[in-house]
């Protein structure tokens, strides 16, 4: 009985894909690219080394090429000059991003700056916040000592391993250092501190979020089946993101209590700026707590 139901679901999905393919078989005006198979396009060509495949693609078709990833048309830009045209000269026209289906939970697709599309007041507001507060020259100067300290820790760790004759995983060490620099700059928390219970929770939830967003999702390549959430990616992401947002709420509550009890906060980090935006009322930079949570998630995980 269960096998019959599963067979019916598979047949329904395949039929839906075929119907959508037939109705949308008119080929758009795209840059040159490799021939694609019906329905699945070039998905099988990419393989497990996509960077090598795309590099080979550029040698054949030049700096701009097109791929068919399932039902999705993808444009590959590979040369520095072309990338500059996309990101600088025509950034407002080409700034729209494809939104992963897994990000469509808790309105993260609407409040997460990486995927806000088209350009909206929220996007402009956050961009202004980055420029004037979070990544301003003054803010970067204040956090310079943090970056220097973390680089010194990295060098000391490498030296200790060299003295002991131990192998150093350069990729893991660099990633840990970069993550610690970012976390200390955002909310004054060192993610390498395994003695902290909150850090342990954060690391666990961080892994869950990264695994959830890194998982291949058929809905991203075949939007016709998106509503079914076949692999349960949205459902799992909802669980992981809820835990992350709960942890962010705890940190915000702790910071607000600190400010209330001390009358000031000794930690001038990104969280400090986000919680003290009332000074920018006329500049339209005010953000509610929900937006702050999504923004912290964004600049921490780039998700």
Automatic annotation (TrEMBL):
**Gene Ontology MF terms:** heme binding; iron ion binding; oxidoreductase activity, acting on paired donors, with incorporation or reduction of molecular oxygen, reduced flavin or flavoprotein as one donor, and incorporation of one atom of oxygen
UniProt keywords (A-Z) are: Membrane, Transmembrane, Transmembrane helix
Q: Name one Pfam family in it.
A: p450
Under the heading InterPro entries, the entry gives: Cyt_P450 (IPR001128), Cyt_P450_sf (IPR036396)
- The transmembrane residues are 5-23
Please, which domain of life does this record's source organism belong to? Eukaryota
**Name this protein carries in UniProt:** Cytochrome P450
Lineage per the UniProt record:
Eukaryota, Viridiplantae, Streptophyta, Embryophyta, Tracheophyta
């Amino acid at each position: 009985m269960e096998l019959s139901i599963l067979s019916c679901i598979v047949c329904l999905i395949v039929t839906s894909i075929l119907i959508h393919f037939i109705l949308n078989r008119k080929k758009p005006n795209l840059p040159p690219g490799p021939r694609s198979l019906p329905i699945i396009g070039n998905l099988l060509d990419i393989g497990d080394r996509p960077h090598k495949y795309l590099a080979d693609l550029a040698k054949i078709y030049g700096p701009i090429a097109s791929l068919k990833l399932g039902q999705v048309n993808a444009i590959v830009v590979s040369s520095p000059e072309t990338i500059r045209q996309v990101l600088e000269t025509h950034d407002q026209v080409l700034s729209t991003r494809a939104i992963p289906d897994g990000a469509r939970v808790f309105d993260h697709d609407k409040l997460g700056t990486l995927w806000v599309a088209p350009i909206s007041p929220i996007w402009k507001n956050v961009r202004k916040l980055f420029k004037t507060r979070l990544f301003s020259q003054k803010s970067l100067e204040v956090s310079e000592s943090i970056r220097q300290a973390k680089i010194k820790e990295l060098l000391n760790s490498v030296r200790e391993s060299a003295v002991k004759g131990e192998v150093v995983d350069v990729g893991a060490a660099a990633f840990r250092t970069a993550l610690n620099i970012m976390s200390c700059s955002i909310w004054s928390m060192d993610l390498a501190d395994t003695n902290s219970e909150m850090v342990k929770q954060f690391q666990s939830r961080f892994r869950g979020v990264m695994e959830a967003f890194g998982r291949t999702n058929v809905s991203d390549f075949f939007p016709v089946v998106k509503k079914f959430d076949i692999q349960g990616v949205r459902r799992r992401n909802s669980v992981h993101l809820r835990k992350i947002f709960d942890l962010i709420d705890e940190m915000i509550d702790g910071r607000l209590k600190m400010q209330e009890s001390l009358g000031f906060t000794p930690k001038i980090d990104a969280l400090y700026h986000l919680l003290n935006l009332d000074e920018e009322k006329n500049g339209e930079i005010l953000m509610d707590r929900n937006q702050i949570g999504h923004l912290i998630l964004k600049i921490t995980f780039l998700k």
